[in-house]
Design brief:
heterotrimer, A mainly alpha (156), B alpha/beta (126), C alpha/beta (338), B: four-stranded mixed sheet, 4 helices, 4 strands, C: 338 residues, alpha/beta, Peroxisomal Thiolase, Chain A, domain 1, 34% helix, globular, acyltransferase activity (chain C), SpoVAD (chain C), Thiolase-like (chain C)
Chain lengths: 156, 126, 338
Amino acid sequence: MGKKKMTPEQEQYKKLEQKHELKRPVLKNCLKAFLVGGTICLIGQAVSYFYMYFFHFTEQTAGNPTVATMIFFSMLLTGFGVYDHIGQFAGAGSAVPITGFGNSVISAAIEHRTEGFVLGVGGNMFKLAGSVILFGVFSAFAVALIKTLLIMWGVL
Amino acid sequence: MIQSVNPEPAAVRRNSGKDHELAEKIKKEVQAVPAIYDVAVIKGKREVLVAYKVKHMQRFHMKRIEKEIKEKLEKKYPKETFIVSSDFKIFIEVLELKKRMKDKDYSEKDSEERLQKIIQFKKELT
Amino acid sequence: MLKGKQSWVFHNSPVIEASAAAGGPFEAKGKVAKDFDILHDDLWMGQDSYEKAHTLLLEEAISTAVKKAGLTRQDMQFMLAGDLINQITPSSFAARTLGIPYFGLFGACSTSMEGLALASFIINYGGARKVVTGASSHNAAVEKQFRYPTEYGGQKPPTAQWTVTGAGAAVLTDCKEKQGKLVTKSATIGKVIDMGLSDPFNMGGAMAPAAADTIVAHFKDLQVEPSYYDLIVTGDLGKIGQSATVELLQKEGLEMDTKSFKDCGLMIYQDDQPVQSGGSGAGCSATVLYGHLLNEMKKGKYKRILVVATGALLSPLSFQQKESIPCIAHAVSIEVHP
């Protein structure tokens, strides 16, 4: 495990291979990610205003139903087989917003439907999203702990 | 959402000139803060509700601005209780309340009840 | 007969009596769609799981090939097949249905040529009179195992390759009348080569040294020139792997002409299909060879070809444990018997 030492022969080949390798078009990808990610957020903002105008939600509380609605949209798009194409086009633009999280859960659930509900869907649903939840909760805990300590010591 | 509506300040007690005057003064006071635009003020029986919109690039300092406005107002009018909010929902609710108050049949009691409901919005966070 | 270090020469020229290819919807839009015997317009193929659809593909390819040879399943003595799924269940399940004595093979995407080489060897030495060999892969089933769920919106880098949904099978016999028929002449079994690359989204680059090694070994063992073949075709190197192989061969003193050095992964799909660097998978070389290329040979376009199928011998576990990708390549030469 871990990084193994490469033999000179392997190093040499690596150099040769890299000449032929197709590079990711980073700048183009960033631009696409920005546009698609921005569009998703714009839709989210519209949904959030919808909840403010027509329901009793404030800017603070509209977040929860907005997130649920966006995940619902991403569920439909995933189920109809559109989201993976958006993902190939937009990269991080569609992966970073909450819809990407929804997509990772839903796609895994669809994928493992053939293994049954308990061991298939239940067991594999968080195959990709599980680490997001774990590390998300953990880092939130760590940051909150630091803040609490700083306040206790009177730094903040 | 983005454009200014600039609503007239209002008071729940329709015939109290003092309340109207106070609301007017508070509105001018708050409008002078550079980071914000569009201020709506409603003077209730006990509280004064101040809703405003923050300029887009200043939204990062929303919490600080709210604190500053509140402190400023409380210092100037120590007798009043202020509810200060930049929440857009509260702003649209204030406009709605003002619309209803224009109707002569809408009683002061109803207005006050509705104002209390808006104040509730400020308190609930999740 | 062993010739040189790692090659076999088949003096009795086993005959490829018939071959067949089955494919999925994506292949139906590809460049060589007309050479498929069976094309499905749905990835599920009427089955309730992708793995069952995978099994069905191989069953169909084998039974079509057997039928085209004018034989029945009972005439077949052995079946050699393999795929990419855990414990090669689709091939084993197909063997269960077909009821032919069975060798399960695993050589990743090189399985097609591993099977053809072994089948030729068995026929050549009288181990059997009629053998069927095949290889298959199913895009969704393989992606599920090796990568992310099918509908997951992850971005694939331009080095990635698209797993072919398809199965190819060939029936080999020891038929005595060989004139004008396709026969296998020789095979070179490759070494496992690991150049330390560990990116599972760049298999072509990892497999190129294995392909080059086997091609060099083949010409050295058989003492022929590359010009002996009308066409040298690799399995699924894709754009990157192919150009890297050409450069590696150049260093060994073998000049490859772009017209006579092709890659199945680049032949199967249209240029505008979103497959990044080309096709891959055990079914890639199997369908292109047993469908398109053998048809072309029958039409007389090629007289002698050398097929080099390359395989990346990784598992989802091994690359997550940061192991590099060991690769292999097997070559079989097919000729029109004079």
